[in-house]
Amino acid sequence: MRKGKDSNPLHDAHQSGALRSITVNLNGVSRSGACEPRELLSDFIRHELGATGTHVGCEHGVCGACTVHVDGVACRSCLLLAVQADGRRIDTVEGLSIGNTLSDLQAAFQRHHALQCGFCTAGILMSCADYLQRVTNPSEEQVREMLSGHICRCTGYTPIVKAVLDVAARRRDNENAMEASHA
Ligand code: FES
Ligand code: FES
């Protein structure tokens, strides 16, 4: 059937069954939306769910800007299809802070001037958040290796490394203090 000039491609796709409805838990809130079967998770998060804190750079898994957590694990959202995320938990940079209070990781980035233009920052924060859950006492070399999956054109990486090491040290100090107070 010939489409009229007022035809809406998304509406037509939905009518023809080309769009899928999926539901994800985005930062603790159940969100549903429509996506094409080939649509990238990064595009779904940004355009359908409006969570534009996740940035998109290379769109082929190199720059790390699009990193989010899928079921608690850092993933490049440009390498996943939105339909693959159906029913899963997605955490983005918008979920790191609690209200207006920055997470300890975000606060450390601020303290150490670990961002300039900020384009890479959301992805790096999400990778670091995942990494610090698993590695509590990383060396500088290990942090640099972890960051090698991210491209930052501004900072030279050193302030980011310092911020990550600072958070790890403070968390260990807090943990030790809590253990001492319960001894
Ligand atoms: S946009 Fe996904 S890795 Fe670059
Ligand atoms: S702060 Fe600009 S690319 Fe990293």
From TrEMBL:
- PROSITE patterns the record matches: 2FE2S_FER_1, 2FE2S_FER_2
Recorded source organism is: Caballeronia arvi
Q: Does the keyword Oxidoreductase apply?
A: yes
Q: Where is the 2Fe-2S ferredoxin-type domain?
A: 20-96
Q: Which GO terms describe its molecular function?
A: 2 iron, 2 sulfur cluster binding; metal ion binding; oxidoreductase activity
Which InterPro entries does the UniProt entry name for this protein?
Answer: 2Fe-2S-bd, 2Fe-2S-bd_dom_sf, 2Fe-2S_ferredoxin-like_sf, 2Fe-2S_ferredoxin-type, 2Fe2S_fd_BS, Beta-grasp_dom_sf, Diverse_Oxidoreductases
- Provide the alphabetized UniProt keywords: 2Fe-2S, Iron, Iron-sulfur, Metal-binding, Oxidoreductase
**PANTHER family named in the record:** OXIDOREDUCTASE WITH IRON-SULFUR SUBUNIT
Q: Output this protein's name.
A: 2Fe-2S iron-sulfur cluster binding domain-containing protein
- What is the top-level taxon of the source organism? Bacteria
